[in-house]
Amino acid sequence: MANTSTARSAGTSAPSAKGAPPAKTSAANAILSAFVIEVGQGATPVDEGAYPARISAVFDLGIQAPPAGGKGVPKRQLAVGFELQGATCLDIELETPPIIFRRYGQSWGPKAELPKLLRVLLGRDAAPGEKLSPPDWIGRPVTVTVEHTQRTDGSTSARVASVTRCTVKALPELTAAPLLYPGSHITELPQWAQDAIAAALHSTAAAAPAANGYDGDVAQ
């Protein structure tokens, strides 16, 4: 096959069985040979900006250690997925709404992000000792602000900068099937979530220390 392609690209292809002119055959093959794509280093992240969204996934990641070299103590983490509506990539609207994730440590201090999310979902501050059910968050409308950050390898990733109240009156319903863990089979979760759950330090039934610490971001 390689030898045939080389011959054709040089304009020396043999006539077809029906006697078609060799020149036309060579021209057609040259066009097909030029129809190639180059595989990039990674997916282009969604554009920065504020997007209306719905919560589409909530994972209990268990008790997670702080990042390597980071400060803080092990703590329980939740991963929340947001399905972005009208998201664009290089200013072109995506056909399928993407889902972007953020990890929330179970922390209640002034710098913690989880209380801010609860304030958006509840419309008020969560009361100390209040019991909340994260599965109830599925489908809830919010506004997600996305920003770009640069990885150590020089590539660009998208992260959830903030989650605020949704002001869109008629937001489309979820297009993706909701994912919950516990609930969904672990193999249905993104690989990074499976890895995080496998690396959990303790059972998720244990109470994590209520201290400030790491809140990371992961984009699908």
Computed structural class: alpha+beta
What is the arithmetic mean of pLDDT? 79
Number of domains: 2
Portion in helices? 10-25%
Oligomer: single chain
The major beta sheet can be summarized as:
7 strands, mixed
What is the straight-line distance between the termini?
39 Å
Q: Would you report the number of β strands?
A: 9
The proportion of residues in beta strands is: 25-35%
Number of helices: 4
Elements, N to C (H/E): HHEEEEEHEEEHE
> Per the principal axes of the C-alpha atoms, what is the gross shape?
globular
- What value does the Rg take, in angstroms? 25 Å
Uncertain stretches of 5 or more adjacent residues: 1-18, 37-41, 203-220
What does this protein structure show overall?
It is built from 4 helices and 9 strands; from the N terminus they run H-H-E-E-E-E-E-H-E-E-E-H-E. It has 220 residues and is α+β, with helices and mostly antiparallel strands. The strands form 2 sheets. Strands 1, 2, 5, 6, 7, 8 and 9 form a 7-stranded mixed sheet that branches. Strands 3-4 form a two-stranded antiparallel sheet. A hairpin with a 2-residue loop joins strand 3 and strand 4.
